[in-house]
Amino acid sequence: MRKFEISKALFKKASAIIPGGVNSPVRAFRAVGGNPLFIERARGSRIYDADGNAYLDYVLSWGPMILGHAHPRVVKALKNAVEKGTSYGAPTALETELAELVLKAYPSMDKVRMVNSGTEATMSAIRVARGFTGRDKIIKFEGCYHGHADGLLVKAGSGATTFGVPDSPGVPKDCAKNTLTLPYNDTKALKSMIEREWRSIACVIIEPVVGNIGCVLPRSSFLETLRKLTRSRGIVLIFDEVMTGFRVSFGGAQKYYGIDPDMTCLGKIIGGGLPVGAYGGKKDIMAMVSPEGPVYQAGTLSGNPLAMTAGVETIRELSKKGVYKQLEKKSSLLERGLIDAAKMAGVKTRFYRAGSMFCTYFTDLEVVDYTTAKSSDTVKFSKFFSEMLQRGVNLAPSQFEAGFMSLAHTDKDIDRTVRAAYEALKKI
Ligand SMILES: *Cc1c(COP(=O)(O)O)cnc(C)c1O
């Protein structure tokens, strides 16, 4: 048995002075029980806790570490960068460099603005969409998480789903009333709402693959219909690719599904493990952003040189030939292994994957939206999670989170993971 004594003590100490002992709710392990691991270091596919246990890591800081932890190229560049000072509050060439890399990979965007988190990116994109259209209402989909801004904490998946608090106290009704929600993948409901309400709708924001209730794939016609309807009614279509950007493919889900959104939000991977978000879009829309236009948005640390450095190095590494083929190979190896393991262990699961993000649900229903995702047996998941942890595999501590593959995971790592999964599944 692995021991977690030091993590336990650290958690107790933290809980006395940090709400719930953590700086982001899902980290607290409440959905699965037990104490969170306190991490000391990480390298490649592995993460090490304060008790000295090693784990194969499929959380990857919730997505950013696609190259693996402490990638030598990123570490070296950061060491160099830090010597030159850590923040100037003035423009640098690095910001343009990252912007160029992003725009090249996401041709739907003409211009992009850097911020410090995914939350800031979506919040700002919506403000710009409202400024651009002069309309107030937004549409989001049940189970999609777009960060924790007031108007977006409505049926928001992830932490909210895990804790069963879809609407957070502290969000004024007046603020939430402008957020209309629809079931994901429901083209009929979408059509009828847009026909009824389009005059007041500024934008539709969507996770083109829903990673915040596990991994829910869009039906092929759903995104296409969404694009057509929004375009015909002058509604700004925002793809929240904070998770799927550089993850589902180099060009994100928009490249993968062949959709041209008006605006895109990025985060996670583009910061290479440092705090970064970005939002961008068509020229006329982005011309609204201050100081070019009247919509205000700012940030003391936006475009921070360390964060830009980590982002630039990460994207350059991802631009190398064959990288996404490799990721696909690794991810499909894990997919086949996990599906077979569940079959052999006689446990009913549904497995979904888009590029290098994936989820195993403990259900025999097809998962297409929030309701069907919720049919998953979370008690079984919790047992599975703990058994995997004991076997040295770190999964996200909630059924409603995606797993991620990195370039640092070897075939041997994946083989070990699959064997651990088989043993764990037999025990639940
Ligand atoms: C993680 C995430 C966010 C929020 O990003 P933060 O950096 O945590 O603020 C927004 N949208 C999606 C789709 C995400 O996965």
Low-confidence region ranges: 160-166
Question: What general outline do the C-alpha atoms trace?
Answer: globular
Q: What structural category characterises the helix and strand content?
A: alpha/beta
Number of DSSP-assigned strands? 14
CATH homologous superfamily classification of the largest domain: Type I PLP-dependent aspartate aminotransferase-like (Major domain)
**Radius of gyration, in angstroms, nearest whole number:** 21 Å
Listing every helix as H and every strand as E from the N terminus to the C terminus, the arrangement reads HEEEHHEHEHHEHEHEHEEHHHEEHHEEH
| Mean pLDDT level | 95
Q: What's the number of domains?
A: 2
| Helix share bin | 25-40%
Major sheet description: 7 strands, mixed
Beta-strand level of the residues, as a percent range?
Answer: 5-15%
CATH topology of the largest domain: Aspartate Aminotransferase, domain 2
User: What's the arrangement of strands in the largest beta sheet?
Assistant: 4-10-9-8-7-5-6
Task: Give the topology, please.
Elements: H1 5-17, E1 39-43, E2 46-49, E3 54-57, H2 72-83, H3 93-105, E4 111-115, H4 118-133, E5 137-141, H5 158-163, H6 173-176, E6 179-182, H7 187-197, E7 201-206, H8 220-232, E8 236-240, H9 252-257, E9 263-266, E10 277-281, H10 283-286, H11 305-318, H12 323-345, E11 350-354, E12 357-361, H13 370-373, H14 378-390, E13 393-394, E14 403-404, H15 411-427
The protein binds pyridoxal-5'-phosphate (PLP).
Pyridoxal-5'-phosphate binds next to α4.
